[in-house]
Amino acid sequence: MAEADPTLASPALTPTLLTPTNILLLLLLFVTLWLRLRPAAPAHIPLPATPTVFKTFTPETLLPYDGTGSQPVYLAVRGRVFDVSGGRTFYGPGGPYSNFAGRDASRGLAKGSFDEDMLTKDLKGPVDTLADLDGEELEALRGWEEKFEEKYLVVGKLVAVGEEKA
To answer: Hey, which residues does 74 pair with through a beta bridge?
Structure first.
C-alpha cells in the first residue's frame, strides 16, 4: 500500500499560524512592545529665568515699566518696587489697576481709590511720605503690601530724584 502524501491532506485539518487573527495579534504584540521599550524623548529643560537685579528707581525711571510693549509691569508700595507682571491682566494696560503701573500706588491703595489724582503729579518732586493717612488707611495699605510681598518679587526701591546714589 502506498503511504498517504502529507502535502495532499486537506487544508482544513492542517494547523497554520498565518491566519488573519494571528497576524493581527502578532502585530498588536509588536506595537505594544515597541511602545513600552522605545527610548523616551529627552526631557525638555526650560531656560532659566532672566535674573532680576535689584535697582533704585525714581518716579521718572519707574514710569516706563507700565506693561506697554514688552516692558514688565512694576509698581511701588511704600518705597518698594514690585514686579507685578504675573498680574498683567490687573495691573497692565487695560486692567482695572492699570493707572498704578509704573507709579507709586501707595496713596491710591490706602484710600481705595483708582483716580488719577491719587498719583504723584510731580515726578521730579519728593516721594509721597503718606503722613496724612489715618490709621484705617494705613492698615489697608499694610494689607495690600502683605499681598504684594506674598505674591510678587521686590525688584527695587523708590527714591526721590537726586537720592539715587545715596
So the answer is: 83
The reported pTM is: 0.68
Specify the residue for cell string 495691573: 91
Which residues on adjacent β-strands are paired with residue 66?
73
Encode the chain in three state secondary structure.
CCCCCHHHCCCCCCCCCCCHHHHHHHHHHHHHHHHHHCCCCCCCCCCCCCCCCCEEECHHHHCCCECCCCCCEEEEECCEEEECHHHHHHHCCCCCCHHHCCCECHHHHHHCCCCHHHCCCCCCCCCCCCCCCCHHHHHHHHHHHHHHHHHCEEEEEECCCCCCCC
Q: What are phi and psi of 119, to 5 degrees?
A: -90, 150
The grid cell for 159 is 527714591
Q: In what order do the strands lie in the sheet with 55-57?
A: 55-57, 153-158, 80-83, 74-77
Question: Which residue, among 109, 149, 104, 142, has the nearest Cα to 123 in the 3D structure?
Answer: 104
pLDDT per residue over 154-164, tens digit each? 999 999 888 77
Grid coordinates given for 63: 514710569
Phi/psi region, residue 78 (left: phi>0; alpha: psi -120 to 50; beta: rest), is: left
Task: List the beta bridge partners of residue 75.
Answer: 82
